[in-house]
Fold this protein.
Amino acid sequence: MKILHTSDWHIGKKLGAFDRTSEFRSAIDELEEICIAQSIDAVLVSGDIWDKGTPTPGLMDIGIEAMRQLSDAGNRAIIVIAGNHDSAPFFDVMSKILKPFNIHFVGYVKPPADGGIIRVETLNGKLAVGCIPFLRKGHVVDLMGDLSKSYGAYQETLKNIFETFARALSMDQAAGAVTMLMSHTTVNGASIGGGEWSLHTGQDYAIEATSFPSTVQYVAMGHIHKPQKIAGSSVPAEYAGTLLPLDFGERNDEKRVVIVEAVPGAPARLESIPLKVAQRRPLRRLTGNVETILQEYEAELVMLSRKYPDVNSESGPYFDIVVETDGPDTSLSDRIHQNLGSVVKIQAKYQSEVTAAISKLDQSDEESYKEYYLQENGGEARANLLDGFRQIAEAASLQRQEELLEAEIESADAAD
């Protein structure tokens, strides 16, 4: 049996002011091609289908149509869980509508006997998937009767849930089914990278890889955007990562899907397949003076055109521009936009007399945060905490760029 594992689509998420719907649709087309070439029996999507819990009708249609496309008119099972960006009630409503099309949505963590395990018949046998959507810290789930009273920390709660599903899936395995778990949460030690905001990726929302039961064939994880194998797990387990790099913190990630080949009762064999659509329009950060940036920009377009001759310059990379100047330059934004396409944000970097006089202002935001953390806690900030800080800083910068752009548009409209 062959399974395709994908995750964190975030339909509707823009990059600055750029809509990426066409790129997402191209990614789904590529997934369909992979499904056909690899003879995929089922697709697992481990959460965050939409970027917002209440997608517009247009965005809702894009997501549902993508799943119907991958399902091959119901011949291929699609199993989907809700992530922290998704609406669990919406997922539960959609589960009733889409089940006849062999598309299975699970919004809440449910007992295994009450919809928590999705069981499907594929061309190559039975598949049983224990579905564990994103569990918010405040939600208490009584999956094990009196044992629920022993729930303490969030980690222990998730560990108990995983074990409960593993026990239930052992009966499916005895009946000759391939068994898997699918969840949307953070595993301690995973590299967060860019993209996912840190509110739901901290210690309070994490589980240990050693909590994964060894009796299933594979654990399909979502929530972390950086594709990676989960170290420390006794069973094959991976974060599939996003289809596209969602922000510049993800610009160096190689986006992919995971192909899982499994037989009942044995660990799965895994293969990663890189996604070409993510490579055709990469994210690039250019730093230097204006002349250097223009040269690097042209070099990027030449390199991309050699690799993908059908890509035109208007569909080239997205750019994050950091211009090194001698001081404030009010014409900088216009000069960059006149000469470069697909610029998401522009930042001027210079040393002012004020910052030279006060050493504290020389520091980057990250350096200031490190110093603050050291003073407050008596130790250095952990790497995953700094990753989260960078994500928030990047998101804030992007939001400010969007606000400035909207203000410019409103000003221009008022002038007209």
In short: The longest strand covers residues 125-132.
